[in-house]
């Protein structure tokens, strides 16, 4: 559906050339929710703006469906943007227009007759849960409601692709989850392909199927979301996963744990899916007659699986540890020894 091929974007400024996107390649399948995550300045906004031709690549190709975005004429591109629409962090609504008029605006530009526009607006208002608010102005709405208007407006021309530029970054956690649920609903109902950029791993975990991690303009890691959470390889991915799990408290208490149990090793067991509920660890620990102190645990849900980890302090010699690791590996439970 979307094919990004060796795309580079260099901004030429008076003082220097800035390489915002550096040789990025990625594919997004039809119906997928694909996330791009990175810290500030990683190149996410530039990358997503390349998807709909708001920026043109310095080299490489952006292909959406049958069209090579990077070599389209301006009028063709304007037309294409009706099918590759976008929502924004600060909503970009027209403040002097009501909810209904905002949603109707792209249809007016596309020359859709009034009757048809009204019908479409009504459908969209219902779809995004804003019935009764049609005549309100944006200033009368909460942040979450404003983004619902942004989403309805973006859907008015029945796009194939929805680009989300930090769409929940201005929202509180509860409203973020409501808007994310809405994105999943419209993906399912309209068979949309969604590409979102974010700096919040929670957003990736909650709704994305696959994600790419960016640093300094490059994609440093990409894969199915569960894989990124379970087995992050790049240091940036590890930081994002750690922030999401938020085990700072555990990290702080490790020193105390070492004082309390000087001969113990601190282990982290990692689980996924059904294993996260089964008593595998308890069975294996019993079998080797080990004493175990549970330090902390956490189970999180991705869009379709649960995964989790358990930190324990355990008095175990190296030989037994190897056997324990092998046995747990047979049950898809990973074991990591935390640094002493
Ligand atoms: N129009 C521009 N002219 C010059 N440099 C730019 C331009 N747009 C972006 N940059 C630079 O490109 C780099 C990547 O910026 P970009 O906004 O794409 O990153 P980002 O990951 O989206 O960060 P943020 O979340 O802070 O927006 C930065 O160094 C930025 O200063």
Automatic annotation (TrEMBL):
Q: Describe the location of the ABC transporter domain by residue ranges.
A: 2-241
One of the Pfam families matching this protein, by short name:
NIL
Cite the GO molecular-function annotations of the record.
Answer: ATP binding; ATP hydrolysis activity
Q: Which UniProt keywords apply?
A: Amino-acid transport, ATP-binding, Cell membrane, Membrane, Nucleotide-binding, Translocase, Transport
Q: Which InterPro entries match?
A: AAA+_ATPase, ABC_transporter-like_ATP-bd, ABC_transporter-like_CS, ACT-like_dom_sf, MetN_ABC, MetN_ABC_transporter-like, NIL_domain, P-loop_NTPase
Magnesium recorded as keyword: no
Extract one GO BP annotation from the record.
Answer: amino acid transport
Quote the cellular component terms of the Gene Ontology held in the record: plasma membrane
Q: Quote the PANTHER family the UniProt record gives.
A: AMINO ACID IMPORT ATP-BINDING PROTEIN, METHIONINE IMPORT ATP-BINDING PROTEIN METN 2
Q: Which family does it belong to?
A: Belongs to the ABC transporter superfamily.
Protein known as: Methionine ABC transporter ATP-binding protein
Organism taxonomic ancestry: Bacteria, Bacillati, Bacillota, Bacilli, Bacillales
